[in-house]
Amino acid sequence: MNKIRPTAVALAGAALLAAAGTPAQAETPWCTGDDLVITAHDMRPTTSPNKGHVIRFAAVEGVTCTIGGSLSNVRFLDAEGRDLDVPLTGGQGPYTEATVHGIFSAVAYVGSPKKSDTVTPAFIRFDLPGKGSLGARVTTAWPSWIGTPVQFTNIGWPVS
Q: CA-CA distance, 149 to 116, in Å (whole number)?
């Protein structure tokens, strides 16, 4: 009987710590531009009327951070860095956040109609979401043509 009581107390204490967290646990910091490796990729072809791209947000080695929300001030650029004035459309969807580290990355999906005017940008430039303000301005290579208008999802976990 005496052995049961200390075990029950230990289990209750562990449950309280798990529910409340411990003082040593810190909130995961918000991702900055320096925390991320950002790349854009073609998605595999489908019979969908839209062409798909994905922007991947991977943590720099040794970094764990959280990112979420939508990209701002999105511009597609030519090889000289000039704005191609590509029309964008809304429809980002619900707000989500993802904590990126190691092999776990976040994504934003990009869709554009296959049967439309097309443009072949060299780069995409955008502002990352920040906490209470805009985040870093980022420019990364763009892999292929896009139709117009272009639609983006919010940043979140990849869909399998």
A: 8
Among 38, 19, 153, which residue's Cα sits nearest to residue 94?
153
Helix (H), strand (E) at residue 47: none
> How many Cα atoms are found within 13 Å in the side-chain-facing hemisphere of 133?
4
**Paired tokens of 154:** 């919010």
CB atoms within 10 A of CB 155: 25
To the nearest whole percent, how much of the chain has pLDDT over 70?
Answer: 84
Dist. CA 104–CA 84, nearest whole Å: 32
What are 68-101's pLDDT values in tens digits?
999 999 999 999 999 999 999 977 788 999 999 9
**pTM confidence score:** 0.81
Which residues in 74-97 are b (16+ Cβ under 10 Å) and which e?
A: bbbbeeeeeeeebebeeeeeeeeb
